[in-house]
Protein 1
Amino acid sequence: MNVAIIGSGQTNHRSRRLDVNAPELIDEAVQAALADARLAPDGIDAIVVGNMEHFEGIHLSDLWAGEGTGAVGKPQIKVATGGTTGSSLAQAAYYLVASGFYRTVLAVGWERLSDSEGETTTGIVTAFDPIYERPTLAGAVSGLAILACQYQAKHGTKPEEAALVVVQARENAAKNPHAHLKQAVAAADVVKSPLLSSPIRYLDMCPTSDGACAVVFTSDPGDRRCAWVRGVSSRHNHTYLGDVAEGAADFIHTLQLASADAYRQAGIRDPRNDIDVVEMYEPCTWAALDWAEAMGLCGPGEAAGLWASGTARIDGGLPINPSGGVLCANPIGATGLIRVAEASMQVRGTAGACQVADVETAVATGFGGSFWNEVMIVGARKS
Amino acid sequence: MDVAVEGRIRIPYRWPAGRAGGMFLSLLASEGRFVGSRCAPCRRVAVPPTSRCCRCHVECAETVPVGPEGTIVTWTSSPAGLFALIRLDGADSALLHRIVEASEVRTGMRVAAVFEKERKGSILDVAGFRPTGGVR
Amino acid sequence: MTGVSILGAAQTRHVGRRDDANYMELAFEVVEELLARTGWTHDRVGTVIGASSDFWDGRTISEIAIQDAAGAAGKSASKVSMDGAFALVYAAARIASGAFQTCLVVAHGKASEGNPRKIANAGFDPLYQRPLGIDDHAALGLQARAFLEGRKLSPSALAESAAQSREAAARNPNAHRRETRHVLEADPLHDDEIAPDSDGACAVLLGASTFGGVELAGFGCATDEHALGARDLGQAGVLPKAAQEAYRRAGLGPREIDVAEIHDASSAQTLLWREGLGVACPVNPSGGAMGAQPGFATGLVRVLEAYERIVRGEARTAIAHGMTGFVGQAHCVWILRRRS
């Protein structure tokens, strides 16, 4: 069954939304999505929600959120998978519609990282195995630091080159009303910013944000402008941090595998040329480089060139993160869903000042703290 | 040999009460009184108030004073405490709280809030509800 | 009709403490048992859906530790952060979409690793209810009283129901053997009228109906208001709505159900949810959740128990009911049917 995205909504992501509680925050995104989809609340048949309980310290947060998601009286399923929560939500919504079980499904992700004193870190530390890893190298940055070290060692990429990713992201975000960090940065600022976990510096890393996102999936779009789902894939690895090391005997590059699977479903043979825009879940600049290669957007060691040459610009040959990406807004339960929303906006022509010209095919990725990688491809045509 | 490692998750949190909740808790703190929200289509009065009615999906624009007394709808005594669901006068939903200063508790008993002297804008600004001697 | 069937199921014995295994080992145990029983291997399983709770596991993305046990490495997999019955909906959808032919669902609960009452407290409305120290047992007490008084029943109705659950559980080799003293725990509920906190796991293999197996004829889910006090806890809430959707999808009526496995966190819920489902058949031959309550695996165990009744020829149709939220804030009803 063909599944289309017919609308999306987001809050304006910020460090702290102290003026609203979680259901009210969610309500903002949901109302915007319903309006964009031209749907009344009773047009939604089922809801999938995502939110990481430890980040806000609220167990069964999905049940509390029902006031904002419109769940009362309806089916609502919670899918929470860490950083991939948002992309996992999109996948769940897709399968629930593609199965024929429900005609129209609303996917809603949110996070309020300002609710906890340590923001992401305190919650995410608990993701690590309590016996072997929690006492030592736990935290959002650790696995990414391993990845970045490996990339730097393999290709000799300089920090100034990686920094161009966030320089471009901020330039794009300045055009995006929903983005959290919009202030311009220069590569020189990035390489002087405080070191988090070498080689990752403060400005190389994504923020934590309060925000929500909602996306409407349906098998019955009527005459609405659609972004049709063309490929859906996910791959998982990493039970322990050692699994991230490329030298490990059973190392799997999960994004490479997930991309290959999704491309096959969507009929993409030449990613660099068949894809018109990428909304990549890049939690740090170095990851963007490694993953652009894993996605087949360029050859090994060439990723820095995508940004240095201007290819990744909104008006470039392969725009990457025209929205500003995760580097400019990261409400974790929503972030992966925002990638899908932004990709669908590019296809539907509703991306405003961030709009890339002539988009037929857009790819959205999701990444989570288990080196889970998820890919969703949306296109202007049904097949 | 079964080996176990002990741990504890200690994370302080701060949850904004939001628009409707902020109003409810502010009035509780500053004026020692309760309000609910009324949904225009279904006329239901929710206590504590909500910004949007869960059933009708419309914003609740109307704020309605409720209480100060109420009726016990159901109660329980457990190791966690002596709790009751109390329908404040004028409300349709019931408020969860503790029962205090009671030698016995029954469904239908009339109760009134016991307020703390120092209030901060929390449900704990109410120490509990005590029986007033009436039954409904 | 979903086009999806159950090809096999396995559960651990449910006990008060599994100090010999962490939760990933529980999952591994039950998945190995499932594969042994069905003769399937990981490479022939298309996708995996887990059901787990970060709070109960004391670990953010606790599902990370399950993937190896469930054979998910290198596969497209996901999870549902609700009772296992809800995970089954997502699992069945993955197959019904045509994207996968088979799906492994695994759920676990290991309450012994944490403080269950404190964890449960974190599941109540954070602004108005949690600060009061309410926990799941107290909430069940509020519900049980509302139920008895609403129907003008005496508390002996709860004792009788609990006795039936105990007798059934005594015949179930996997049920949680526990000591109770029949003392008031959350008035009017006694300790033996509240479901235990169990360590255990359950795994179910789903496949396209072309593989055979027991048919997943229909399902229905519905969500209620979260806060205690939003509705009359002594009524079945949105359960009849969830059940109606299941009956409609299955093309069956409640009187055609031969047996029902209900997720009953208290003896009041055994009676209340049976009423909400509208069935007239025997309920909880396994003992239900009253016999063993391994966290989010509880609803999946209901699916397993319903499946086994059909496989053994004891029933042609069965309901398996799962719940998330201590007093029924979300319900999921499955109807299973023997293939003719």
Protein 2
Amino acid sequence: MNGSTSVVLSENKASGFEKASTFKTFKTFLKRLNVQKALVLMCAPFVLHILVFNYIPIWGWIMAFQEFRPHLGISGSEFVGFRQFTTLFQDDLFILVLRNTLAMSSLNLIFGFLSAILLAILLNELGNKIFKKLVQTISYLPYFVSWVVVANLVISSLSPSDGIINRVLLALGIIEESVLFMGVPEYFWGIIVASNIWKNVGWNSIIYLSAMSGIDPELYQAASIDGAGRLRRIWHITLPGIMPIVSVLLIMNLGWILNAGFEQQLLLSNPLNMRVSEVIDIYVLRYGISMGRFSLATAAGVFRSIVSIIMLLSANALAKRLGSDRII
Amino acid sequence: MKSKRFLSGGTLEDRVFDTFNILFMLGLVVVMLYPFANTIAVSLNESLDTIRGGIGIWPRAFTLANFRTVLSRVEIYHAAIISVQRTVLSTLVGVLTALMVAYPLSRKDFVFKKPVSMMFLFTMYVSGGLIPVYFLMRSLGLLNNFWVYVIPGMTSAFNIMITRSYINQLPDSFVESAKIDGAGEFRILFTIIFPLVLPVLAVVALFIAVGNWNSWFDTFLFAPGRQELSTLQFELQKVLQAASQQITAPDFTRGGMQEGSAGIVTPTAIRATMTIVATLPVLFVYPFLQKYFVKGLTLGGVKG
């Protein structure tokens, strides 16, 4: 009895202290706010800006649970629960675009990583600094041109009448007659992956090169004194040296697994390759903007975002467990 | 002897490796540059001659007729002006935004440091998606409106984060001594911080400028109805779409020839010429400023 009252008493005491301290922190908070009002004023308009342009659209996810009609607005439209999502997963076209998205984004992820790492390693091995700089500068030129331009270059290069690819393949005797590459669905994913590598490999290699420049040169000297050749030095020193950044980037990119990009697919699609070229974004565009099925399209977008968030959070947890830096 | 400077000498393995590496790099340079060189050659070649095929990296029958035809079209000329306007405006606004959000966030004692950072970071990972954004633009009256190119993209969490990391690297004493002198925060930002962070602002400006210049999807989605809002990239996209839809038809190069100021010009030549017009500004700017880009990327690697 006695013991329990004393516990209660001390609890009271504690909460009393807490009250006093919250009041005190609130007071100091106001004081700081007053001192920093210029700083608050400085960023307030932009906070308001992202509330409008980034957070209101997230609130618009409500549309995915409605049968949204533009003239009724979000407040007036009828709620239908998860009906849009069931429709979505019963739609063969959605399953198809989901498959296309997953296929292209995983291929892009794997080959994008491998090509950038390979290029970084080879650039790092170049002895002549000027030559290295020159190659590097040229290698990330395509990164800065638009997808529209790249799509144009891809179509010209693959043209059956006069494209360089057909010309080279014909000259080497690999093919007998010109191939209409853009018209063969089986080639489409390969074309997407190749154009992605062409556009991004130089840029993506920069981060690995900067990680390599942080490797202690004495390690290389010691290894060559021990008789390790070039390839063994790459295998035992360079690769382990960049592994931390590779793993962080790899897990970080898992969050984008349902983002295969859509500009290149939209720009390179034609009636012949539609079944392999359409990705989730194009589905959303078609159903939402062109056909007016706003709620279904929003549901597809919401599904994608939720998967991304889950992937990102688990990747983050995984990274933490593996002992590397957290991503967010 | 000459190649010896490239090769570091040493063991046989070294020599073999270096030789293959240099050959690989030369191949890479060709692969990266050939499509551009070929497009330039086609754009400078007489278009009827191009149909014969076989243009490599050098024009066979040199002419400026394709450029004259493309640049004399009013819609191209107008689209170029819109592209320049949106790029310049977005860059100015975006740099100012990055600076004015990054500075308060760089101050360790800023009252809303945590919540404001979190709010911006969150936008890097989650977005509302196409349809809600479309309706937002509609209700704000931004559809078919020039400002749709500038206002929605004004803030970028990434640009704010790299600017903040850069300000964080500056010694605190700059701000402290200015405060002692009685300078207000706005004055500290624009007279003391601003000149010191110019390198990172150059990075931010370039990211925004290149992104805006290359953008076509916003025109496609938000302003397809008004020709006077079309951009160069969007015009190029229209030409590409036409070519892409006809790609299965035989002889598509011959369909829809245009009578230009300098005689007949084929769609292939128009497409090549417009590609070059839309790419040239970026090609000119990037070699000079590439060091800033690389710096920006390494700054971006610094966690937010």
Protein 3
Amino acid sequence: MNDTVGIVIVSHSKDIAKGTADMVRQMVGSEVKVAFCGGDPDGGLGTNVSLIIDAINNAWSPKGVAILVDLGGAETNSEMAVEMLESDRRNMVVVCNAPIVEGAVMAATEAAGGSSLDEVRAVAEELSAS
Amino acid sequence: MSVEPATLKSLVKAAAEQVIASAPELTALDQAIGDGDHGTNMKRGFEAVLGKLDTIGAQPLDEALKTIGKTLVMTVGGASGPLYGTFFLAAGDALSQKRSLPEDIVEVFASAVGAVSNRGRSQAGEKTMLDVLYPVLETLKAEVDRPDVIERVRVTAREAVERTVPMQASKGRAAFLGARSVGHADPGARSSCVLLHAVCNALEARP
């Protein structure tokens, strides 16, 4: 199997993160590595930097990882998680400015075709273009 | 700089305990204009800091600040984790670069506030913690040599929280409320004030 960009889904709600990952897998099966996380360190609604770091490492691909987030805290915590990665991985992970469900499905579909990280991000972010 | 481990520990302990004690108030403020988790999140973060008090107390000040920052990043579970975490990490970084306290407090505080602004992609006037941090920075710049600078910081922080009441939020969950965010104090501004007051009080109480 050729390497494809990995996808990470970060929601405040673990249910939304899992549901989004289910929808992604329905589209791309196991062609793309998908990881997800949701919830604060006590399991309530929120996000958790250490779980995000784990998810990035689980979805890791030499072609990089695209992260899809829901609301503000998920974005800020994802950016923080990226900065805390090993230095050789840091530049290979992007947080996409895109709606979480549509963005994840479109990013994963693009990734399945072997596209680069920049291409995957661009397709997801087309959804946010005004 | 040299800070006695006992002083550092008592300072961090006082600040953490004050934040934990104000959790219900922070949550109430956040329920009015946000998702209502600010008190719980800050409490979780500063309880984790208390859990590392012995480690923190044994570290040089720059490393201690970084440990506090990293602990908050890893445990808070909301945007305030990276924001407060970044404040302490950046302050620690500034101290590592041959600056020392109290001499370079203005520079160190400015680095920390600038880093929070970058992390949140936010400026003053958006109804956030920066609306306390920037006024306090200005007070420090102008009045750092005054004998009553600690009281001036306390007053500035308290007044700055009040000035967030008529502001309309343009960052964070409160921004979703638009004009309805007007009329409430910002929870992040309040938690910054609580922290600053706790540090001021602990500094004054030093033998």
Protein 4
Amino acid sequence: MFYMKFSKKIFLLLVGAGFLLGSCKKYLQVNVDPNHPTTVPPTVLLPTTTIGIAFANSNDLGRASSALVQHIAGVANQTQAYDVFNFGGAFDNQWNNELYDNSINNCIALINMDSATSPAYSGIAKLELAYAFSLATDIWGEVPYSQAGQGAVYTYPRFDKVQDIYQGNPGAGITSLFDLVKSGLADLAKPGTLKPKADDIVYAGDLTKWTRVGNTLLLKFAIMLTNVNPTLAKSVISDVLTGNNYINDNSLDFEVPFSSATGNQNPIYNFNYINRPGDQMLSQRLLNLANSLNDTLRLAKFFTRPSGAFVAFDNGANSVAPLQATRSNYGSYLIGTTGNAPIRLLTNFQVNFILAEAALVLGTSGDANTYYQAGIKASMTKVGMAAADITAYFTANPTVVTLSGSNEDMRKQIITQKYVAWIGNGIEAYDDYRRTGYPVLALPNNPGGDDPTVIPTRLPYTNGELTTNPNAPNPRPLVDVKLWWAKP
Amino acid sequence: MRKLLLWGSMLLLPCFLFAQTRTITGKITDPEGKPVPGASVLIKGTRTGTSTQTDGSFSLNVPEKAKSLSVSAIGWIDQEVVIGSRTSIPIVLAAKDKTLSEVVVTSLGIVRDKRSLGYATQQLKADQLADKGSVNIVGALEGKVSGVNITSASGSAGASININIRGITSFTRSNQPLFVVDGIPISNDVDRTNGGPNGTLGDNQPANRALDIDLNNVESVNILKGPAAAVLYGSRAAAGAIIITTKKGGTANGHTEIIAGSSYSLQHAEGLPKVQNQYGQGTNGIYNPTSSSSWGPKFGSTPTVANGLLVGGQPVPYQAYPNNINDFWQTGNISDNSLVINGGDAKSNFTASGGFLKQNGILPNTVVQRSDVKFGGNTVFRNKIHVGGSVTFTNTLQTGILGGNGSSAVNGVLALARSIDLTGSLKKGTYQNADGTNNWPITGADNPYYDAYKDPLKSNVTRTLGSLNIGYDLAPWLSVSYRLGIDAYTDRRKQIFAISSARVPLGQDLESTIFRSELNGDLIISAHRSDVFIKDLNVTALVGQNINQRRSQVVTVQADALAIPGFYNASNGGNFAVGSTEATTVQRLLGYYGQLSLAYKSYLYLELTGRADQSSTLSPDKQTFFYPSASAGFVFTDALKINSDILSYGKIRASVAKVGSDAPPYLLSNTYSKTGYGNNVASFSFPYGSVAGFGLSSTIAPQSLAPEFVTSYEVGTNLGFWKNRVSVDAAYFNTVSTSQIFQVGIPPSTGFATKTVNAGKMTNKGLELLVTVTPVVSNNFKWDISANFTKIVNKVVSIFPGVTSFGIPGSAFIGSTPSIKVGQPYGVIIGNVFPKDSATGLRTVNSGTGLYSTALANQVLSNPNPEYTMGITNTFRYKGFNLGFTFDFTKGGQILSFTAASYKARGAWIETAKDRDQPWILPGVIVSGGKTVQNNIQIPAQTYWGVQGGLQSEFNVYDATVFRMREISLGYDLPAKLTKGMHINYIRIAVFANNIFHVAPNAFFDPEVNTQGAGNIRGLDLQGAPNARTIGANLKVSL
């Protein structure tokens, strides 16, 4: 009797337990992330990649290269270390967050997403991808390229050689940067229903301008090959000249806009005026160069004169830096009013200098001096010099604005002008310096790092990649090892 | 609804079944009226009975004919109680002399005789915790518990305190133990507010939420150390559990007790580095009013234009301010008042309490203010159903100020050149210009007072903790109960930055609402039978079902670019895009568990448990997982009838346990996130105007995600000598963590930073020892010593194929990254180390500069894990006096100190003034052309200390060995004959001090800090506040 009554209760308990068990499957189905979407339209990826390549160009890599080419001099913290070749622990954020993990992977996502239905996005993404990869390989040399940005497929991306990245290597399955750009141009020419509008923050969806970007990229890549493959360089440039559809006016420049709003400012302003106003200033060496070229009117667009005169600092000097309030910092052309200057990636003045150099050393069509003068004028116009001032400069400085002497002398003139025009975009100036040796730069004071005897010819790989990728060169090449395309 | 009906009908059923019995209730207490839980109450001459609850109460159905009860409890003399016609029977037990036993509250609130346990626990009573100057209950445990490491973030008011039990057992999950209050799991989370760029790196020291617990209301704390102890709590207690029991109502005599307590203490900064007062502001011997260094001219130098002291023909004011740093740390105070009312009898009782604590910290503008009220009660409903519950409401306010690298109050103080007068023109009252802007002459920094008063973080936590218990004894040997608990809090935060603050020059108003709730329900059916199969074999069985749900939501509105100075409201912002976010999570768990405990003749014990969990966060095919445990205890002195005067008690014990843990929610799919670029030096965030930007999230989702496991093997012994005047509790454990859930770093060139995996293995081997000695005991005098020792050796065995190290998730600087590295203990800090010449073992020096060669990256810079820790508490009782003091000692472990770096590189530390005018030489060798020579290149002192003072330099890794006088307290109970006539139980006055002094032989600062507070990142002092010394007095009156 006793036993039976209890089993009844136990039975009820079991029924109760069973009831709870039965409802648990649904109860546990709550693991859907409400904080992050699992699919997105291409319209939100394109702004990410466009800002990404501009940010990568103008943030820490830009500062390091600007210090190495002595546009600026470091006064404190990282820039001061870069100035004397100390890069310990640097550039992870650039490699990771600016290039591979935001620009490159999302360009690839755009390409995979829409090459069939909306080739416009795919085409733009291929151009931006080519730009991002060129930036990486020009800075570091061998970098992950053909297997990069595809984490689900390649966990340990291979490091491709610089020559394979530029020229392709079908045997190794490597498409050249030139072919990547051409594939993008082909996509842009295809009809598609979905086209970018406001999400194309550079050209508001005008694909003809993107086509010019693609052709201009070909020029930029080709001129890098003057030392190592002039034949290819000449043929690419000649083709682009024949097509005549490249950036040939300041209004067509590929420049990524930023604004004055907090969080949307360009990195040059955000760094130099908001977060690290005391870290860097005008290099005494650039000031000396500008003085020697009588080019201080243009310099005043690049750098401020808080006390009326330029106040510069010698690279690597141990001496006490001038009072911060008096220092020449980046000026209106580069920061706008409060961070709303664009970051210029491909420009009309650059194209003119490329074509001048190509005419000179590769024998492509056109007159080097014409291109040279057009380049100077384009730069001076772009920084905001008055037409009268430009004319006055040309009149007063005929030896500066006219190519003369040997081919090498003339090339030095071209690259020196390009170097001045590129103030604020140290990466372009650093590329040209390593490829041509111009302008001639003296070592900073107190150099250190891997090799204190030469200005670094590349930057060191990042710790993050070195520690996680068994395919990374080990030990890493020192920063005095020249890149494939460098001046021998 | 159907569920409810079913349960309702079940609960009613027994009413018709036992009409022929009557119910006896009662409460068993000690002579002081304190409850005796876990006592056995049997109907005399039968095996039918029950045991008392936590509050000492019991309820028993007895046949009409039953005459008396047999009451027994470990440590107490057995008693027989005649029932007579009574239905409510208060029983007062008399203590057995000098026995070694105690009852402890274990998993699920089950009261157990400690002798029956096959694993280690350690219990602390209220008098070991309260009234000793601690505000946070975790701090009150410091130095007193074996197997536990506790380190406070800093002396900042409310700063979180890290606690790890038996080492770190999970790569990336929280390694803080589960906190359980009266059977209800509660949150001990630390919610961080990113105080502007870089804010979490030495931030405003937010609290761990155990801060909300009022120590005045705590009756006891039991620390369940290993997985075996905590297995019934399942996943949530994989890192051990802290079981807190609060004060309960119901005295045996039915009297109401009112305890009023009040204490007041003062706090001062303790252990500050010594500074030099010979050289002032400047660099290279030249005065510079914008410098944050003290490398200027010597005081008393003749002012010249060259040394910068003569400007415009006038000498600049230039003198030492010896206390300018130390005077910034102010005298703090803590006032703590509480009232606890306990009433009722054994059958129905209640407790009501309230407390109010206010702390003004040692940093300016830092406050903790905690108010709490609690009401609870228990009753036996219709003599059948036990019903109990309580509600606690807490309101905790905290104001914190920024520390850490970059512009912060603490860093600002550490960067005070020796000649800056913080009490003069830049003093507290005039730290700003007339228009409210920053008046500090040093660029990139604020006046420390400006940081403190213009850029604080305020937190306002409202927290409700509710519990409900319903229990029913189906039979004398079978009971069922349900316990429901809810812990929910909302932390409303406001972080402001005034316009012109160095960190956020355009100003910011950041409003953040952090909500967390945990719902926990346990159905427990337990049965107890004596003399099963054979005589003296007692069996207790338990089955249970657990339901757990945790929700969180953090909503942040970040208003940047303020328009109106001094108006801190979101409407004043010009931009809301940068940090405004929402993050919502929910995760659920269902658990099913069982426990079988066998006890033979009170000397041989065996316990088996099993638990199966189902978690919402794991892959559907892997979301159900089972884990068992087994433990055994053998009291060999009883079994072998050893009756020695020397060895009075001896037990050996062993256990094996496995605990599985689920994952954080939402790891199973690949997602996209809003894009942001850059860091604290330059950044960009979407939307760009009205254009949105998203990108692939940085983690690759796993194909499948299984739970992670911790398996623990433990052997231990409890020994009592000389009639238990000396007792030893020792344990050796080996814990193996496997199948860890973490995001392993993959090459960033994949386009992703990490991928989620199940992998890795880590071991913790440890020895813990607790020795208690009573050297002297007499009628009026008693001396007790309690000493503990802990040694834990952690080793990361493997991570993931091809991966030898990765950074612990959390905020850290690249270049000093707390890491998980194969072959190393958990948490080593990886950074750059200067290369050494292999022949001499000395650092190599660059022959051109006289400085060290370029540092090698990815080297182990420091190891935060101590070799061992010890604590010792002495207690003396003489008549009404009670004197206790605690010392603790930490041997080894290392700390990377940005604070030390600041003192050195900025020329403030006293040592930097020695021979400053002489040339210095870095110790090392110059290797060139195959020849090695001693470095003889002279460099200036500033350069020398600059090398020594690099923030992430190996020269700022210090041995954290420290000896500390942790606590001292002297209490006095007014003689009973004075108080008796006034209906006063006792009046107790006490004076106490906490963190009295420390001796760190190898560090010139207090190395016992951990700026990141509670969490897995340890061993970093990122310009945090110093520790505080507390001195106070307390008055407690019981009516």
